[in-house]
Amino acid sequence: MAHAPIAVSILTGFLGAGKTTLLNRLLKDPELESTAVIINEFGEISIDHMLVEQASDGLIQLADGCLCCTVRGELVDTLADLIDRMQTGRIAPLKRIVIETTGLADPVPVLQAVMGHPVLTQALRLDGVICVVDAVNGSATLDAHQEAVRQAAVADRIVIAKADLAEAKELEALTARLNSLNPRATFLRADSASATALIDCGLYDPKRREADLNRWLGELSDAHHDHDHTHDDGCGHTHHHHHDDRVRTLSLVHPQPVSFGAIEAFLDILRSTQGDKLLRMKGVIELVEDPERPLVIHGVQKLLHPPARLTSWPEGPRGVRLVLITFDMPDIYVQRLFSAFMGAPSIDTPDRAALQDNPLAIAGYRP
Hints:
By secondary structure, the chain is α/β, with parallel strands linked by helices. It is built from 13 helices and 15 strands. Strands 8, 9, 10, 11, 12, 13, 14 and 15 form an 8-stranded antiparallel sheet that branches.
């Protein structure tokens, strides 16, 4: 009997942000029954696993190293072993796996490990990234550590911890900065966040996740802030410049359905030329071949999760809506590439046929 795909939640946040405290509380919630927890640490002495108050076979500790580098192979092996033990009846069926990363981890390679293995993608579904941010030290951490910026930028949920210890002005400034950095995230307080509010933040079930989908894919102009500088280039692209200006959010919008071949070619070139700078991507696409069932895509760097089809359209505009979270990406190149494959190339920009022969022919490309 085939099992439903297991939801995978990635819990990230910088050192000392409060991940373990949040995890301890959430694991007592009935919503997280039948959950396996994978804890990663960095350093010679392992102590975090002693702080998690769930003593069961579901608690797994990875060896010394950071999930984003030295133990990615071990993470894949651990996940594969969990799946094998469940499918062979050696452990009870799992509903969810929570991966708690070390505070020094860039979550993007962790996402790659989950999404990029052909066996894992059949048995697992990425539910979302939860990032815990320390209200007291969060701003200083974002200033000093690019890893913290990337953790917040790719999150579906941002959980503010220790809010009661922060000055009101500091908390307001931190929240505004995080909202500018990631206008697509849902913000919660650690002391009141429930398991229900933190899970089910993927793109797989339109009935339960429509609000999250629309939050990710809505017009970026809905998320203006006084300290943002926004411009629209007239082609459906809206771009925000933030304090953390190497990490940006780029919206690509086309009002009409497109062929599967056009969107596939665009994504292939985007990932091959800019994949290392593409932290995360989500999109809903109206296809000429089947306009009533939107195609949902989810990518991390050069990896694209197997596309899913929704049974019907959520509320909001149709056509093509993509949201990219990027790191130091030449946005003008991406915008021109998108326009060319949507059939509306800019002046002096090659069309789709020319680009498929030479993907680097667009001005603005930077390796």
